[in-house]
Write a structure and sequence with these properties.
The protein contains 5 helices and no strands. By secondary structure, the protein is an all-alpha fold. α1 packs across α5 and α2 packs across α3.
Length: 110
């Protein structure tokens, strides 16, 4: 149940930040494939927008470069898509941790 909520949150964030229209109910594999397709289109047609997205999502540039070097010949779009999803999931988890801490802090003050 919690995983489903995270996926909905993830999809909502991706749709908003990337201006995409991924369905709210989608498997992780389908999401990765669709995001990879979207990224591949950006690589071919709008690399500047891709750079902007990577900056906005806050993908670690050094990690991206390292993965691309280590996986030369692999699907670049798939690597980037996986990093975007990973980063967004990290942000979601961090927000959950801080929101639960702030709720606990309020309880402790009373």
């Amino acid at each position: 149940m919690i995983r489903y909520m995270v996926e909905n949150t993830l999809i909502h964030i991706l749709n908003r930040q990337l201006n995409t229209d991924f369905p709210e109910v989608i498997s992780e594999e389908q999401l990765l494939q669709r995001l990879s397709f979207f990224i591949n289109d950006l690589i071919q047609n709008d690399i500047q927008n891709l750079v902007t997205i990577l900056y906005k999502v806050d993908v670690n540039e050094n990690k991206l470069k390292q993965l691309l070097l280590e996986n030369a010949g692999e699907d670049t779009a798939l690597i980037i898509a996986a990093l975007i999803i990973e980063r967004q999931l990290q942000k979601i988890e961090t927000r959950k941790q801080f929101s639960s801490k702030s709720e606990n802090d309020v309880d402790e003050k009373w």
